[in-house]
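Course assignment 3, question 2. Fill in each field.
Student: A.L.
Task: Predict the tertiary structure for the chain below.
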Amino acid sequence: MPKSGVDAQRDIVYGDAGADTSLDVFTPSGTTEPLTTVVWIHGGAWISGDKRDVDPYLQIIASHGYTTVGLNYTISPETTYPTALKQLNTALGFLVEHAAEYNIDPQRIVLAGDSAGAQYTSQLAALVTNPAYAKRVGVTPTLTSEQLRAVILNCGIYDVRGIPDAPGIGGWGFRIALWSYLGEKDWSKTAAGRDMSTIEDVTGDFPTTWISGGNDDPLTAGQSKPMAAKLQALGVDVTSVFYPADENPPLQHEYQFHLKDAAARSALDSTIAFLGTLSAP
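Answer field:
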């Protein structure tokens, strides 16, 4: 059931892979006008997850006056890179084409994601804002840079070159996941592995960005903080939400969804405030 005051349209098929290429749309009840639209790509290390995982979070955001969309895509090992990237790009084109049906303002699209979904988000945004990168990857973006107003990046990976040396069980897990996703055991030396490292391909035209990671997330120091610093150095407007090393309780990977914790609620408030800055024409 959708959150009170929010209408849901579920399992809308946008592509040719059935449920894998489907999406959910949430809007404030009774909405008839186009709204700033947050399009969210779920995480799951490229090999798991579903749009349903983020539905509750999207309903909360929608209740603040936004249209929100959760996207499915084909996970690995059922397919390998770049199938899902192309599917997600197709989904964005579908949303623009059908904007009037779903209370979407096609000139106010915000891409968002968590974990692997944040990697996809950064890659799609790089495709939109860096034509040389789009040509190299071989994907023609279905959004324009004028339509893509901002990105929201939670606990993501932006430099997969660092994953081969990542410590602990988390590093091992990401190495196995990337083997599955890219289809090669020695994936770090592939062109696809290079293309996934979006930190090397962002430019000063990258959209205004909200980015966060928990103090106990192994990706924060090596991924989220360097990405935030790179974007700031390029002159991109960045809102970063990071925490001191002694933050207690420790904030682990995907901390933002644990809304029983004060830090997660604060991050949500910050996200809503960030979206509010995009509302003016």
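Instructor remarks: DSSP finds eight helices and eight strands in the chain. The chain has one domain: 6-276.
Grade: pending
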